[in-house]
Amino acid sequence: MTTGPNRILDDFAKLMTDAAGAVQGVGREFETAFKAQAERWLNGMDLVKREEFEAVREMAVKAREENEALQARLAALEEKLAASAK
After folding, report:
1. How far apart are the first and last CA of the chain?
2. Residue 83: helix, strand or coil by DSSP?
3. What is the largest CA-CA distance in the chain?
4. What pLDDT is attached to residue 3?
5. pLDDT tens-digit profile of 3-43?
6. 3-class secondary structure for 10-75?
7. Coiled-coil region(s) at which residues (predicted)?
8. CA distance 37 to 50
9. Which secondary structure element, helix H or strand E, spans residue 80, and what is its range?
10. Cβ(2)–Cβ(10) below 8 Å
11. Residue 1 pLDDT > 60
């Protein structure tokens, strides 16, 4: 059995180890709570994910290109129709 200064130092080391573990636990709890709150806040803002935005963007680009191609085709048909009406 240890006595004297060694016992005091052992008790102090154990106390510091326990305190460090408690601080780490509080830190993890704070991080978890913060992440949950941030996720709730972001979900409430109706934000879209980057992948969804990129997919819709690509659809819009494709639709615009198809629209331009159809306009050119329509213009060519109108010219052809006007030429045959003369």
Report:
1. 118
2. helix
3. 118
4. 60
5. 667 888 888 888 888 888 888 888 899 999 999 999 889 88
6. HHHHHHHHHHHHHHHHHHHHHHHHHHHHHHHHHHCCCCCCHHHHHHHHHHHHHHHHHHHHHHHHHH
7. 53-80
8. 21
9. helix 50-85
10. yes
11. no
